[in-house]
Amino acid sequence: PHTPHSFSPHFLDFHLDHNFLPSHPKKKEKKNKKEQGFPELPLSWLFSVTMGKGNYVSSVHGLGVFVAVVLLMQRGEATTFTVGGSKGWTVPPDNSPLYNQWAEKMRFQIGDSLLFVYPAGSDSVVRVTKEDYSNCNTNAALEKYTDGHTEFKLNQSGPYYFISGNKDNCLKNEKLV
């Protein structure tokens, strides 16, 4: 039995590793010193630092603060990014790969949205496969939007391919990965 006087931080290691935090890999891969990054420390190290001389309440409080900080760092508010900024979704000047250059500078997260603003009736946004993106194929759309104010939510990681529904515009680099 574990009482505050005989409390073992190793007992909590098991429960925390399996319930809240990712478990450590069974086999450690050998890496050269430049690739090691941060040293791996057992969770009991956190308890021994926060517990001092075995104060159970301090250790639980310290762990709670640690978990809260980690969760807050990972969970931010979703952001809506306006594609093309104030100019919106239009043919870029000089047929430059403007949208992909813009996207490379951004950091998108699951839950963020892309807002496409364009003249309804004369342009559209089409989500396509990688192959259809490369060929500006507007006939095999996964999704097509024509309302002039399209907000697309990024609900999974990985690439998304968007082209103008006007093939001539797509050929002039009105497209985005």
UniProtKB/TrEMBL annotation:
One of its GO terms (cellular component) is plasma membrane. The keyword S-adenosyl-L-methionine does not apply. It comes from the Eukaryota. Residues 79-177 form the Phytocyanin domain. It is a lipid-anchor; GPI-anchor. Keywords: Cell membrane, Disulfide bond, Glycoprotein, GPI-anchor, Lipoprotein, Membrane, Signal. PROSITE patterns: PHYTOCYANIN. The keyword Iron does not apply. It is found in: Cell membrane. Pfam families: Cu_bind_like. GO terms for molecular function: electron transfer activity. InterPro entries: Cupredoxin, ENL_dom, Phytocyanin-like, Phytocyanin_dom. Belongs to the early nodulin-like (ENODL) family. This is Phytocyanin domain-containing protein. It comes from Opuntia streptacantha (Prickly pear cactus). The lineage of its organism: Eukaryota, Viridiplantae, Streptophyta, Embryophyta, Tracheophyta.
